[in-house]
Amino acid sequence: MKALYSLFLVFALAALALVGAGALGMEKAFGLYIPFLAVAVFVVGFCMRVVDWGKSAVPFCIPTTCGQQESLPWIKQSTIENPSTTGGVVMRMLLEVLLFRSLFRNTKVDLHEGTRVTYSSSKWLWLGALAFHYSFLTIVLRHMRFFTEPVPGIIAGIEAMDSMLQIGAPTLYLTDVVFVAAVTYLFVRRVVVPQIRYISLVQDYFPLFLILGIAFSGIFMRYFAKVDIISVKQLAMGLVTFSWVVPEGIGVMFYIHMFLVSVLLAYFPLSKLMHMGGVFLSPTRNMNCASRKFRHINPWKFENVHYHTYEEYEDEFREKMVDKDLPVDKPLAEGAE
Amino acid sequence: MSDLPRPEALFANIDYTPPKADWMDVPVEIKPGRYCYAANPDSVNYVGLPHARKWNPLDDDWKLPENWQEIIFNGLRERLQKYRSFKIFMDICVRCGACADKCHFFIGSGDPKNMPVLRAELLRSVYRGEFTTFGKILGRFAGGRKLTPEVLKEWWYYFFQCSECRRCSVFCPYGIDTAEVTIIGRELLNLLGLNIDWIATPVANCYRTGNHLGIQPHAFFDMIDFFCDDIEDITGIRPEPSFNKKGADILFITPSGDVFADPGTYTCMGYLMLFEYLKREYGLDVTWSTYASEGGNFGFFTSHETMKRLNSKMYMEADRLGVKWILGGECGHMWRVIHQYMDTLNGPEFQHSRMEVPSNPITGTVFKNAASTKMVHIAEFTADLIKHGKLNLNKKRNANIHLTWHDSCNPARGMGLLDEPRFVAKSVVEKFTEMPEGTIREQTFCCGGGAGLNAGENDELRMMGGLPRANAVKYVHDKYGVNMLGCVCAIDRAVLPNSMQYWVPEVDVCGLHELVANALVFPGEKERETDLRGEDLPGMEDE
């Protein structure tokens, strides 16, 4: 049901662009104003979220340690999974952000006859997530050719690599295939695995459909509708150089694509997609694990904390302590009053 | 454990298929055997926590204060500012489900609200619905919901089912730690006086007497003295421990669970023997404190503030006695608190200026990793002694033991204490077998206790939560003949014996220093015929 809502929502968005940029001829709105606004919302919103997180304190050093601590000199420390230096923390974060280290550990539980439970390695989610994120990144980088003149060598290089197999004309991008497959996997997994379906919300399905919509509209535009690339570039260059122009006859598919991208950008800071920024700020991963060696300072103070002092303790139990020859600070007579 | 179904029946009931209805439409059902009794108002009052009253989780009316929602919202708002961890964890979960089948309570119960993601979502949905613009406008469509008494009950039921073991955090791509969420969740519940008695009463006891059982100083002395009698019977050597001794080298603090309940008591005898050995051989002066007689910090299960108040005794006592540094016994959450909170909480406020960076006067080893807290784990300390050949050990005395090692959650995932206890264990037993990968080291499973510690009333839950650990033990028992499960946590020693008896009755539970003491050879001791448990040593059986 939630998946259907989301699917419907994405169709509605596409229809909006179709009608708006097509029938109503609002090319300027869909080609310039909305994308510009969306980028602004994305940048400002993203920064605001990160600043908002940053304003919250990190009172304690609470990293999850996933390996041997720094200990005696002859015990081998796991310097990346349980780092005690900044270098180690950086390595840990790099592995996490670039290779999804924690997801790589994923296991699956199974119940068997009698009372037996087993755990087996399960790397599909890791693979799917990695494929999704890296092909997305490549696609975004590839698109930079629309926004740069001359196109930097690195971006041309990525494009050449991506169309290495030279299938069809225009040549098929490998990332397009991987991307659609990965997003589809992430969606199917949400629907098919009962537990994942149970925890999924509308906002888990919506971005998947939205991204899929963007991918399909992009692919359709490139391979089937064949929009005028020169005009698209003209529009894109205009956007980034603030000399806004809307060339004639780009084709409505482009506006649908552009609109869905705009929605994604604007939706980003409001949603779970912010994990992109949040992962860097997660105290369980980005902190040094040597919290007995170096003191971590809490920026705020506990108020009105009462302690039970030794004096109070001895006052209550002095007699019993003296009885057992346990040392006391004040002799019995003095304390008894 | 009479009400419990047989293990096979309990196991057969585990079903990982969630209900058809949306989880927000499945009302909470508080099941006997899976929750702990409400806190005794006297205990709540003693530590000055608000809204102490008699209430019963099974009643409809929880006697909430009138403005309870406002209290929660204010508390939530405050904590979102105070804890970046909490705020980030509220915002960035993508519900990928990697944590779903990692929680021992989910594995053993199949209750979908025990999936860490959903347990956190119970709170997250309210945060979304009441605190975010999106959620306020779109409500349920944005995954938000209102805070109702039903939701509050659900929080209470499930947050106290989490043992804050952090296993889910290991697998989360963003390191989302459900322990952080449930700690805050419990803090919020505490603002309304909704604690459980197995936490609140130990907290009050720790506050008053120094330990969770409320053992007063004279009784504490008697209990240790009683162990000394036993040790004298077994070894012919009588330890002469000192208490509250000013000017001692080292203050020793261990969980009080070790002082009163088997098999922790054997571990406690182990400490006593080790210290006596070190005193006789090397003149090391270790003292115990009756005031700071609890390592385990039950405040950790209540609120950050309570944790601070209980923890302060360690440094206050070290300061008063003028010791050089503190040695800590085998305990789980005690070490999470020491490693990750203590120095921040109470360091400069209470730490003695004369305290030194811990060094082992016998071996000369400087514990640089504890330079700031000045607290060393006894597994680190003993490993150092053994490595330098300072202990005379006879492994053969433990020849009847085939050991496997349970990494206690908090030292494993909040500290990284993995190889030190293994080194010590392998130095004192002949047969050692690891449990399968995926169930040990940072992926270790909780004993199933945690929140409810040794409570009898939530036995069913504890057996469910104990299944993954017990199951891995069963594997090495069946395959290799393992008959002993070692650990460095007093809650483990309280919970695992029941869980083993239920799932793998042939396996016993012990602490690390029980094994050390069994193997430790004193000069001039009599020939030992039994181990610390009074069981015949191999080769010394009565004919």
What does this structure look like?
The complex is a heterodimer of chains A (337) and B (543). Helices cover 61% and strands 4% of the residues of chain A. With 337 residues, chain A is mainly α. Chain A has a two-stranded antiparallel sheet. In chain A, a hairpin with a 3-residue loop joins strand 1 and strand 2 (116-121). In chain A, helix 1 (2-23) packs across helix 2 (27-55), helix 1 (2-23) crosses helix 11 (252-267) and helix 2 (27-55) packs parallel to helix 11 (252-267). Chain A starts with a helix and ends with a helix. The mean pLDDT of chain A is 92. Chain B has 543 residues and is mainly α. In chain B, 47% of the residues lie in helices and 6% in strands. Chain B contains 22 helices and nine strands. Chain B has helices spanning 7-12, 41-46, 68-82, 84-91, 104-109, 116-131, 133-138, 149-159, 167-171, 178-191, 197-209, 217-235, 257-260, 264-282, 304-321, 333-350, 378-387, 409-413, 419-428, 459-480, 490-503, 512-519, and strands at 242-243, 250-253, 286-288, 325-328, 375-377, 402-405, 431-432, 484-487, 508-511. In chain B, the strands form two sheets. Chain B has a five-stranded parallel beta sheet. A four-stranded parallel beta sheet of chain B has the order 7-6-8-9, sandwiched between helices. The longest helix of chain B has 22 residues, at 459-480. The radius of gyration of chain B is 23 Å and the shape is globular. The two termini of chain B are 36 Å apart. At the A-B interface, helix 2, strand 1, strand 2, helix 8 and helix 9 of A face helix 1, helix 3, helix 4, helix 6 and helix 9 of B.
